[in-house]
Amino acid sequence: MGAVAGRRSVHVGTANSEVAMCESTVRSSDQQSDRMSSDIVTSRNAERAAPDGVSPITRMTLTVAELLEHDVMRSASIVAGRGGLERGIACLNVMSVPDIVRWTRRDEFLLATGYPLPRDPDEFSGLVEQLSERGLAGLGVKLDQYMSNLAPKVLATADRLNFPVIIIPHETALDEVLSQAFTIIVNRQALALKLTHDFHHRLLTVALTGGGLALLVKELSDMLGGAAVAIVDRAGSVRAISDDRASFEQAGLLRSDGCIAIERLLDASSPTSSDAPWSVAKISAGGLEHGYVIAVDGSQRRLPFVRTTAVEQAALVAALEITRELAVASVERHFASNALHDLVTGGSAGGVDSVAYATTFGWNLNRTVSVIVARQHELPGAIDLHPRARELAALRVVNQWTSLVRNHDSAAAAAGFAAELVAVVDAGKAEHIARMVRNELVTTGLGNFSVGISGPGTAPDQIPRLYQEARVALAVGNRLTGAGAVTSYSRLGIYRLLCNVGPDDLRSFVIETLGPLLRLPQPSRSDLLTTLSALLENRCNVAETARTLHYHYNTMRYRVAKLEHLLGPFIDDAEASMRISVALRLLEMDEILGSLNASDGSESSSHGRQHAAARQPKAIA
User: Fold this and answer.
1) Distance in angstroms (rounded) separating the CA atoms of residues 409 and 602
2) Element at 612 (helix H, strand E)
3) How many CB atoms lie within 10 A of CB 12?
4) pLDDT for 594 beyond 90
5) 250: exposed, middle or buried (C-beta count within 10 Å: 0-12, 13-18, 19+)?
6) What are phi and psi of 604, to 5 degrees?
7) Does the model's pTM come out above 0.85?
8) What is the pLDDT of residue 433?
9) Which residues contact 108 (CB under 8 A, 6 or more apart)?
10) b/e per residue, 146-174, with b = 16+ CB within 10 A?
């Protein structure tokens, strides 16, 4: 493609030069073919013979510096713009007319004799600026009777712009420069195609044989000459890595916890060119991102120029492997979820059967355990996802939850239900596991989670009770502390006591204590409930409560009088104040647990039982 593009550029020249060039090309066609075949074979042999299997050619784009190293340009000299020697050359163009700029394009190397070049230094300097702005690789000038030297101003402009200007000796034919440059470009493209084909075949073999991520990492490392390779999740946790961790540490990509610093890889200021010390590709499947494939240079080698293509192809294979792993895990998770669901709910399978079945999953329930229940808060934009994408996202959350819990307690039982994540863990480590796993889930970008932790239980038949305790702790903590709370049932205080009282007794207590106030119309009811709650929080100090609510003292005294008229004297009665305070907590529990409807005393307690039944969890299928 580079040769074709270059020949199209040559057509801009005059007819005579074009004919001469074509005749020269025809005369040397056999020689060029032989050289091209020889160069390709030489490149392949060099690739095999080089240390670590890495080809000496480390990038597909020919640079100005590399062009100067070839035979036809060895006598050429660079007179300005040395800072641009690494500019890439995609094709060459011959300047035959003064207004050549509009016929040029990015990454071209422009060849010219003195005849079409501007004689005026200012005009020539302007041409150099235009060529640099167009992104040309450089300018090669063959001096002649029309221009015997380049003005200092022209050279100064080229130096300022880092735009290479090269003097081509009189005895060097421009068509020889064109031919050799085209040959180099075509050879590199041919080598790139061959390597890409080889990479594709080797990676496809990994995918078809089900080699897994470990084999994929090894294969990619071998393909890139022993480069350090890793496959990580979105948070940088390593899923598979080559033995060469030193390269990641040397590149500043290895964190102290052993994870890869994804934020550095994706930083907009990080190197992204072909000269960067690493290549990275995102692993995506089903509209979800599963992590990254990363390849990093070692200290004594350079990655081949096709590394980006290889890493991108490896990311596709990694997506297939991860999707397959998720599918297998989904089947296993289905049985585990059903077993754990029967265990924590006392389902139809029976507690004894569930405990016996648990041993097949490596769960240890014959110890003092606690139950952990977590619930994910909706991610922004998740509702707009395709149903299949939402399903895959949910499976990914469950898979991550199970993996993280088992990392902290290898004998734990962990699974996902329709709206909950559940685990049965060692009671002594329950709170630590809950906090660590919750933080790790948030770090992976899966959203926010609230967690409830039950008290301890010494027998498997106590697990259903522990499960209910964890659900209560989750609901109360989420209501009182907000999203992301990690709440232990043993620290619920008065809420723990109230949760063990029957809903009918609680309802009766609330109605007897706050009935007259609850029967007021809105907004009077809400205003007085707010005033009453603040008054009790300030230990019935009227002046302090007025300051808290920003009321005038007399207004506050009026509200207190109204409250005592409805509820009876309580300001100076500690027992009455405590009774009202408990009733207010029960109102909060009504909102939290849905087991009461104290705002309307006419409804029966069956509403609470129906609501609780509707919230019974189901195992993920």
Assistant:
1) 49
2) helix 606-614
3) 17
4) no
5) middle
6) -85, 170
7) no
8) 93
9) 9, 89, 90, 91, 92, 93, 136, 137
10) ebeebbeebbebbbebbbbbbbbeeebeb
